[in-house]
Each structure stands twice: as structure tokens, then as C-alpha cells.
Amino acid sequence: MASASNPYDPASWIIKADATLVGIDPAISRTLELPRNLNLAELHELLQAAFDWEGTHLHQFEIGGLTYGAPEFDEGYEGERKTFEATGVCLSDFSFRHDQPIEIMYEYDFGDSWRHRVRLSLAPFEDGAQYPRCTSGTRSAPPEDAGGPHSYADLVEAWRDPAHEEHVAIRKWTGRRFDPERFDLTATNKAIASAMRQSKGIYRHRRLKR
User: Residues 6 or more apart from 2 whose CB is under 8 A from it?
Assistant: First the structure.
């Protein structure tokens, strides 16, 4: 049951994030419900968990023409891009309107370029709910290093067709757990809870260095 608190009180609302991989049809998506005090580094960790990524590649958020992420990975990068610190921006910093979502882009693995369109909107706080959580999703995310959206379409075609010359090799490479149409809500929420515990407000890779 949703909270009956004052609708003008920020504590009465959480953030719903509808995240969809760009360039893949049928869609691969996740719907997350998030606490308002979540920062972008934590959002990165939760998106990794929700899409079953391994976090072994670089990432960035594109918001209002600016780039947010982990600036230490820009060291030695020759270009005009400047990455701002992701832990310095919380979801509560966005100016939400109840009738208009805010759209941001999240990119993981600059080689494969897995771009996620993330629509953020307000949703009522639900008494007794544990946030963050995933409430729904569609299909399995592509395996790491699958080559990007176009290559993934070819991979799925070979995976499905026993007569395809790459069928056996693709099945072996993707492993028994992989099924492009599978989505496990319970497993996703376990992964999200684990990621949140390990993050604790910062990037997990930074915590591991301590």
C-alpha cells in the first residue's frame, strides 16, 4: 500500500527508473525503484546488477551535455571529455515534475557501447517496501563482450538455429545459464541487494582498494 503522506513532502516519493538498452529489438529493459538519496555511482552499481553485467569495462552517464562517472579512469585520455565525479550527484538533486520524466543516458563498455536510456520519474513511497528493488524486466542482457547491439542480434540468431554454422560455438561460449528470453526477478533483486551492500555510497572498485 502506498504511503498516505503529504504529496508535497519529498519523503513521500521514491524514484522509478525505466532502463532500456538502445538498439535491441525486442527490448531488453528493467524497471527499478530507488531511494532519492542514491548517488550516480550507486546507480551504476545497481544497473550493473540489474542487467547482470560484470563491471569489467568503463562506463559513463550523460546528463544535460555533461559526463559523470569515475574521473580517475580519464587519466591519460586525450580528448575534450571531462568526467565529473558520480558520487557528488544524487537523484534528489534532479528537479522532478510529477508529469514529466527526466531522461539520462548510461553507457557501459565503450567498445561494445551498451547504451541504456534511463527515464527517471517520481513514484509514491510504499510502506514496508525495501528500496532499491527491481519490479519488472524483459529478456536477458547480452553477455559481456558480445560486440554491441548488431553483433548481439547475430549471436542470438546463431544461438537459436541448430543449423547455423556458429551454433555450437555460440552455445559453448554463452554457457548453459544463458537464454536471451529469460528474466529472473528474484535473482535480479538478490544481485541488487548485494551490490547495494558492497557499494555503501561509493564505487565498489574504490572500496576494494581500501
Answer: 124, 125, 126, 127
Ordered by where they begin, the domains of the chain are 14-138+184-203 (3.10.290.30)
Burial class of residue 90, CB neighbours in 10 A (0-12, 13-18, 19+): middle
- How far is it, in rounded angstroms, from Cα 186 to Cα 181? 16
Beta strands per DSSP E along the chain: 13-21, 29-34, 59-63, 66-69, 83-85, 102-108, 114-124, 133-138
pLDDT tens per residue, range 56-108: 999 999 999 999 999 998 876 666 779 999 999 999 999 987 778 999 999 99
184, HSE (Cβ side, Cα atoms, 13 Å)? 11
Specify which residues 126 forms β-bridges with: 2
Backbone φ, ψ for residue 62 (5° rounding): -110, 115
Per the prediction, the chain carries an average pLDDT of 92
Which phi-psi region, left, alpha or beta, contains residue 82 (left: φ > 0; alpha: ψ -120 to 50)?
Answer: beta
- Is pLDDT above 80 for 9? no
Whole-angstrom Cα distance, residue 46 to residue 32? 9
